[in-house]
Amino acid sequence: MKKKLIRFFRFFLINLIIIVSLSMSISLITPIDSYLQILEDKPLNSQPFLNTTLADEFNSSFAYNNIETQLSFGDRIPGSNGSFDCAKNISSEMQKYGESALYNFSINGFQCNNIISRINPNKSQIVIFASHYDSRAVAEKDPNSSLRSEPIDGANDGGSGVAVMMEMARVIAEAKINWNVSFWFVFFDAEDQGESRGISGINGWDWCEGSEWMVEEMENQPNIYFREGQSLDTIHSFILFDMVGGTNLKFIRESHSNDDLTDEVFKIGNSLGYEVNFPLNGATRTYIDDHVPFAQKGIPTLDLIIEFDNLNCGWPYHHTSGDTIENISEESLEITGRTALQYVYETFDPTLGFIEKFSSKETFFSNPYVIGTGILIIGVGIAIVIKSTFFKKY
Length: 394
Ligand SMILES: [Zn+2]
What we know:
The chain has helices at 2-29, 60-72, 81-94, 155-174, 209-220, 222-225, 259-271, 292-295, 330-347, 368-390; strands at 99-107, 110-119, 126-132, 182-188, 195-196, 199-200, 235-242, 253-254, 284-285, 301-305. It is α/β, with parallel strands linked by helices. The protein has a six-stranded mixed β-sheet with strand order 1-2-4-3-7-10, sandwiched between helices. Helix 1 (2-29) packs antiparallel against helix 10 (368-390), helix 2 (60-72) packs across helix 4 (155-174) and helix 7 packs across helix 9. The two termini are 13 Å apart. Bound molecules: zinc ion. Zinc ion (ZN) is lined by residues 136, 157, 192, 319. Zinc ion is lined by residues 136, 157, 192, 319. It comes from Promethearchaeum syntrophicum. The chain crosses the membrane at residues 12-32, 369-390.
């Protein structure tokens, strides 16, 4: 009887450990909806300053017109004339608000250019806003198969993020506030040419080539990027805008992004009345995007992006011929721009000095895939040790 009981106990314990570790690792590895988070109320990290709010200065028709300007250069495929003309236009417009330069690099012989524009460039603490400006060379998801090898307009996928950032830069510069941070506006080339459904934008290219290259350069040649007192460690936060101007805007929580920064910006969106667009307990997804190389260096990042791979997300035109100006919503541009400017307004109070960084960082060991696999291995290991140590007599 005693033997039977011990056998049952052994069977039960080992299975329990394996099931618990399996389910913990699966829940971490499965990105979709599996670790939704209910956000707790947390005070914003500083008081608003001055009597005006930056958010009210955001002009959504300027942003909309800016997308039309980008599209007027034609396709912005890396290495093309359209791309170079668009890059020069972005940079010269941004010079009205601060300083701006093209940073060129080449991939497989194609000349590419990131654009970095700075307002208040000498302050040691840095906040980065970013988007990609290249447009995808193929519409591999188009419902009409004859269009799948044609380029997309990229009004939303590319154009919208650039437009919101350029209008934000205008507002930040014209506010003439004695900012205590440097603002960087980074426009990446070569984000959108990787392989999807067996079709590459440009053969042999990966996603996010421009951001990967920039982070590598920042490490290897910091003096090209940083002024005195600046380094990767003084980057306060990095916010990426990707597909922020489509109809029916609804952002998801992206799991490479910093939780605290995500909470903060989503709460600000809610406080402005955009509960539908920044749902506090919406879906969580895992996307490779231009913020990932920065997150991997421990920089708090946020990818403002929609659930583009779900046809029911309200904007079903990802990598199709439907990514046109007709499917852009001026209101979505406004919602994004006002929320981001309110974040600036509430976070970078010039009276506060050095601003505390968001705490949690993504490193190799905090990646959900790595944690999940680790838990599984440890769980199975414990089960094996218990089995062989305590139950070998039976
Ligand atoms: Zn894309």
